[in-house]
Amino acid sequence: MKNGIWLSLLFVLLGALTSGQDTDKKPVRKISIVAERFFFSPSKIRLKEGETVEFVLTSDDTDHGFHVPSAGIDVAIPPSGKGEATIRFTATKKGTFPFECSRACGAGHNLMRGQIIVK
Amino acid sequence: MDPAFQAASANAGLAARLEVLERKMAALSAPPKPAVEAAAAPAAPPVPAPPQAPIPANAVVASGGSPMGNVAITGDYQRSPSGETKLPVSGYMDFHFNKNRSLPGEFDFHRFVLLFGHSFSDRIKFWSELELEHSIVEGGEEKGEVALEQAYVDFLIKPAFNLRGGMLLSPVGIVNERHEPPAFNGVERPFVETIIIPTTWREMGFGATGDLGRGFRYRAYMVSSLDASLFNAEFGIAEGKTSGFPSSFRNPAKVGRLEYTGTRRLVLGTSFYTGHAGFNMATVNPRVDIYNADARYSYRRMDVRGLFAKTWVSKAKELNNALEQTTGSNPNVASQMLGAYVEPAFHLFPRRRSQDVIVFGRYEKYNTQHKMPDGYTALPQFNRSSWVLGATYKPVADVAIKFDYNFNRNASTVVKPLDSINLGIGWWF
Question: Domain of A65?
Fold first, then answer.
């Protein structure tokens, strides 16, 4: 019985220590990007080199895609009401990196573009 | 090795020879080494080799030369198998039932449209739209049409400046470039965007597109001109669109649009068109100018959109005289035409639900006889207005089941328009 109490206390202590370590970490910046026919909002995203961010991608209408050719990333954004897609990454290189819709979404599909600017 | 050959193990010599041959073939099929390795590398930033298979959710991708490191992706996604993005066939369809008061109703498979695209590279992209209207095309008969709605190649240079050439949608109004059935309310497109802005309006041409930053983007094209010999009192300039054939570039028209999308759920747009339209006329070369402003805004469950468009036709008097001499009837083309509409809509379900029911009302005013040239009298039956009241049910985001009732009015005391009821299913895939 006594051993059980000590074991429980040990777990509580370990839990408190590990949760304390988590709070010391810098929180990841979340950037919400909404796709709709035929633009991304926002279409220009500014990041700092070395920054870790999380893009939360949702659609206001049909399926869209989030394609960053220079990074080889192509993510499907589900249609409105069907959830979201997330990309978490670290901006490792300065520059301007275009992104575009990669799922055919209508007459103006080719207009759906944006830029990630890393400084 | 094929089991049939293994079965003949008694012939050891043959098996040995085959093994040698297999080794040689394997060596031949291996990828050749580049003659020049470093020198052949392009100066552009390196693009990491794409993966050969989809990566499971929560996967972490090694950064390599990529600008994005320690990438983790969750959600429904797949990565392109190569640097070349191949889009599947997409399309939209419109199936309608239209009934004017006191006339029998009609079914109409109004539009069957397929869209094809291809990326030749990250900077050269093709996009197209091929349409079959009214389900059948027969030679020489007034039935459907097969039409190339758009087919162009984009050359991506910089975000603020890219080039485009081919069959282009004129960037005027809301619906002309955004005409998928689930993207607008009402079984038919708004009257103003059918008669004053003649959707689907496409012309041959080339021009520039770009994102100017802070939410502003533009399209500016030089396009083939309208054909003034087809202008008339009822539809104004609408029947003068050439849709790419015959496509005169004697006096190319200029068309452009500036759009603001920098505030969430707000889109503001303004467009202009200017060009001479007399390529099919011997004695007169009238100029057509169009100005348009439009807006879309959503707040919680409310949507509202509105549009204003005005058209000027120069030398309308000379145009009417010339057409009357050649055809024997006066087309009564106005020197100014005007149209506007406002459409509030309400979503019965909260946003981000997979199903949606939208109720809407649209008031439209459209007058193709707004201002007449000297000596010509406006025909009041073409000074029109409509109330369109209806609902759209979307069981999923890409399927719209639509219903509306149109109260149509005009300024004439003699010719009265008929009210109409419309039902339709439209879908996008």
Answer: 27-118
Chain B environment of A61 (Cβ under 8 Å): 182-183, 397
Chain B interface mutation, best of A62, A100, A115, highest count of B Cβ atoms under 10 Å: A62
Tokens found for residue B26:
């394997």
**Binary contact (B183, A90; C-beta < 8 A):** no
Q: How far apart are CA B307 and CA B310, in angstroms?
A: 10
Q: What is the CATH number of the domain that holds A68?
A: 2.60.40.420
Q: Is A32 on the interface with B (CB under 8 A)?
A: no
Instruction: Please state the ipTM of this predicted complex.
Output: 0.77
Whether residue A85 is contained in a domain is answered as yes
CA dist., res. B415 & res. A63, Å (int): 46
Chain centroid to CA B290: 19
Q: Given this model, what pLDDT does residue A10 score? A: 52
Across the interface, whether the CB atoms of B77 and A75 are under 8 A apart is answered yes
- Average pLDDT of chain B, as a whole number: 84
Interface of A with B in 52-111 (CB under 8 A): 52, 57-59, 61-63, 67-76, 78-93, 95-98, 102-111
| Distance, CA of B280 to CA of B228 (rounded, Å) | 7
pTM: 0.80
Number of domains present in the structure of chain A: 1
CA distance A71 to A8: 47
φ/ψ of A8, rounded to 5, equals -60, -45
- Rank A48-52, A102-106, B92-96, B332-336 by mean pLDDT and report only the highest: B332-336
Going across the sheet that includes A44-47, the strands are A44-47, A113-118, A95-100, A64-68, A73-77
Confidence of residue B164 (pLDDT cuts 50, 70, 90): very high
Scored b (16 or more CB within 10 A) or e, B317-328 reads bbbbbbbeeeee
Q: Residue A17 domain-assigned?
A: no
Q: Would you say residue A13 lies in a domain?
A: no
A111 falls within a domain: yes
Domains, chain B, ordered by start: 85-428 (2.40.160.10)
pLDDT tens per residue across span B24-60: 555 555 444 333 233 333 333 433 333 333 333 333 3
pLDDT digits (tens, 9 = 90+) for B333-342: 999 999 999 9
Query: Is the separation of the CB atoms in B420 and B408 below 8 Å?
Result: yes
B345, B357, B351: which is closest to B399 by C-alpha? B357
Residues B122-127, mean pLDDT to the nearest whole number: 92
